[in-house]
Structures are given as structure tokens and as C-alpha cells.
Amino acid sequence: MAAFGFCGDWCLLVCDKKIVAVHSKQSRDPYVFDCSTVEKKPKNKTNENRSNDDGASEDTGSDKVLAFAVSPSGKLVALTDDTKRLILLHCGDASWQCISIRFVVRRCTALVFSQAEDELLVADKSGDVYSFSVVEPQREGELKMGHLSMLLAITMSPDDKYIVTADRDEKIRVSHFRCPYNIQSFCLGHQEFVSALLIPSAHSHYLLSGSGDGTVKLWDFESGRRLQSCDLKHLVEKLSSEADEEKKPTVSHITSSPDQYHVAVLCERLPTVQIFTLNLESKEKLVPHTRLTLPHCPLDMTFDLEGRLWVLMDSSDKMLQMYSQRHGSWECDAESQDLMTVTEAFQPHWKTLEANTRTNSRFEHLVKRSYDNVEAYLHKKQQRLDEQQLKRTKTHKVNDNKKARKEMSRDVTQSST
């Protein structure tokens, strides 16, 4: 996994097994947390016996970071890795601290803090959501709710009233936080897996969702009513083959500016960022504003506290790009001192990440494959009918021949007598 974010004035780079924090304003040593150096879950007796009995071994992961989240205040960071560890970090003004290392039941796909920052919700590949206490950082997680398919995204309303979860079966479920068995609504309408969710903090009754069907939708999520749908097919450049032209962009990330007026949408493996304006007072609430063309395919993006858009790209030479809004348009700010400082600090860690690791698709295996076997079925059916007709024709001819020989034999017998 390769991702980028902000924790206050600290820039965060998730780079394979590491999370690296660099201060963007002051000259400080970077903070590096390496998951490969952290203790693993010890084998218990049950697992040892199972290993001896049936050959199964303790599940070991690759230590790669699978998901991370920053708390609303920017003082806490949570990450989970392929070895099923859940790590909670505290970001201070001058230093970082590892608060706790706990273990999850299954590999996780998404994390989110409650607005009160007293709970951390963890969504996993089996469709379950677990709640981990932040106030009691050593307490084990509790099962909160579950889906019937893999969860891909999770978020919470700014008032901590609702949990919003999205799965690979195109469903968005809105559940009450304190009693998740009580479902408020479903937001239905996507044709592929739902891969990104965002509730703008200034517009707490509205939800933005992105999907593998190449659309971004705006919802009144309490009622489940869809307000608008924007198709992103125009982001896909004209491809050579007709088969490729049918592919739709997969929305991988949605984020909003601090003033909640601009929304940026990132699609997997497309060198563009689509920026919308969000005005809930107008008829068209989500309006395309700017399309940024990038020199390389983006991996992640985020806004900083000053409203600048940072884009992490799949390139060893130019890994970060920053855009600032001037006079109503977004312009590349390549000469920014903050950008150069952060890039220089991240570069040594970034070069250790293999290119094929950076470009691995998170969603390619989730796309539905359609198979048209009707034509083959009709062809085989026609073959069977032709064979049956041919068989009947041959049988009819044989019977006619037998009948003719019989009549001829009778005529010969009669003439001889």
C-alpha cells in the first residue's frame, strides 16, 4: 500500500511496511514506524496443537500496511497491517508515541475514528465491523455489526450518530452507531462495488460515494435518497481496442477541502484528478470545476489545512505534486518550499518501495465479469435439432426402403403363383 495524509502539520507517507511522518513547517527529524520490527501475535496452545494435528500453521502476514486513518483532531493515527496488527499512535507537537498494539480477527480494509475520538472502527474483508476503545488502548475489540460480503469503505457522521458502510455488492448501509442492528437506510443505485465514502463535515446530512461503475453519487443518506449522479467516463482517454473502451474508471478516493467547497475525486490508474464544487443550495449541487492532468498515475491525494491539494504519484523521480487555488483556478505549485522539504525527506523511503508494489490494483479482482453464453447455447441447441432431424430423415428413408422391398417381394410372389 502507498498512501499520503496529514496529521496536523505532519505529513504522513505510508510506504509498504512503514509509515513516515515529516513536519512540513519545522526542521525536525522524521518519525518512522516500521511494522516489520513490531512484535507478532504469539502462538497459543490451540494453534500449536492444530499445527501438529492437521498441518495448519500460524497465519503469518507480510507486515505490509493495509489501511490507516487520522483522527478528526489530527492527534491520533491508526494503522493495520497484513499480520493483523492494529497499531495506535499519538502525534505530539514535538514527538510521536506508540500507544498500543492490538490484534484483529481478520485482515482489515478500512478504519475510521469516531468524532469524539473515543472509539476506532475497523472494517474487515469478511464484512464485519469491530469497535476498539481509544480511551482503554489495551482492551480487545468488540463486534459491532456485519455484512454478507467484503467491506471496502467505512465512515461516520460528524455527530457520531450513524455508521456508513459500503461493500463489494453495491450496497451502502446507514446504521445507528449506538445500536447498529437498527438500520436507518440503504443507499442503492451503484452497479459495481462501492469503493469510497465521504461525509463533508460542513454538510453532515449528505454523503458522497464512488464506485467501480465509474460514477460519483450524492445522497441524502438518512432517507437513502439519491440527489445526483456524475459519470466519470470522460476521464478515460480514448483507448485502442473496443474491449478497453468498455472499461469504466474505478473511484479510489474522495476528499474535500477544509472549507468543504471543493471535492477532489481520484480514479485508479488514471493520470487525472477531477475537482468538483459542492454547493447544496443550488439545483446542481455537485458541479465539475477543474480537471487536473498529472505527469504520472496518482496513488493517493489529500488537502492540507491551508486548502492545498497534495497528490502522491507513481514515480521515483517526482513522487509528490501540489496544487493551490489562485483566482478561481487550480495551479501546480512546484516551487513550494513545503513541497521540496517534504519530498526530500520522503525520497529515501520511497525509493525502497518496488514499482510493482506501488501499482498493484486494489479493486481489479472485484470487477464483475460478464459471460455471454447464450450464443453458444443457441448454437449447440441448433446442432442438436439438426442432428435429430437428420436422424429422423435417415430412419424415415430406411423404413421407406424396407416397405418398398416388402411390397416388391409380395408382387413377385403373386406373379409367380
From TrEMBL:
Subcellular compartments: Nucleus
Compositionally biased region (Basic and acidic residues): 397-410
Listed GO biological process terms: tRNA (guanine-N7)-methylation
Residues in WD repeats: 187-229
Pathway membership: tRNA modification; N(7)-methylguanine-tRNA biosynthesis
InterPro entries from the UniProt entry: Trm82 (IPR028884), WD40_repeat_CS (IPR019775), WD40_rpt (IPR001680)
GO cellular component: cytosol; nucleus; tRNA methyltransferase complex
Keywords in alphabetical order: Nucleus, Repeat, tRNA processing, WD repeat
Disordered: annotated segments: 390-417
Domain of life, source organism: Eukaryota
Database matches in PANTHER family: TRNA (GUANINE-N(7)-)-METHYLTRANSFERASE NON-CATALYTIC SUBUNIT WDR4 (PTHR16288:SF0), WD40 REPEAT PROTEIN 4 (PTHR16288)
Function: Required for the formation of N(7)-methylguanine at position 46 (m7G46) in tRNA. In the complex, it is required to stabilize and induce conformational changes of the catalytic subunit.
Similarity comment text for this entry: Belongs to the WD repeat TRM82 family.
Designated name of the protein: tRNA (Guanine-N(7)-)-methyltransferase non-catalytic subunit WDR4
Organism the protein comes from: Solea senegalensis
